[in-house]
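Q: I have 155 residues here and want to know how they pack in 3D. Can you give me a structure?
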Amino acid sequence: MNMGDIYSSIRDLNLEPATMHFNETNLHSIIMQPANAWTNIAYVIIALYLYFRFRSQDKKSIIRLLPPIALLVGITSFIYHSQFYFVFQVMDLSSMFLLSSFMVTHALCRLIKFTTGYFYLLFAFFFIMSFALLILIQKQSGVFIFGIFLAMALI
């Protein structure tokens, strides 16, 4: 199966188009938003760097979650901007919410010094809360929610 066959198979699914729009115009090609799609390869490169950087950490170290999350952001965002369907938009937002939830939880963990068990509980809470807000607010709220979580992590 070549790329043309894959492209045709995806197009034949009659999926709902994405609801969030960016400055780049969608092209009628295999990669609909090339600039937005290809820049996500940076997340993949960063994920590989972080993997090799943190692989010597204790297996229970929460920082070891960061490389797979970064890899997931790179892959899902690339797919989303390549095809621009709603299902891929949700996958992209999910990975971004994982990243922002990790950042907020990690910052709180450094500030308050709670156990690993509480870290995972709080991490799951923030991730679920992100999705609940997305469902409640809808439209282009994903970027807004992600921004709020990034601001919380920075503060």
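Q: Anything worth noting?
A: The longest helix spans residues 86-112. The two ends are 49 Å apart (CA to CA).
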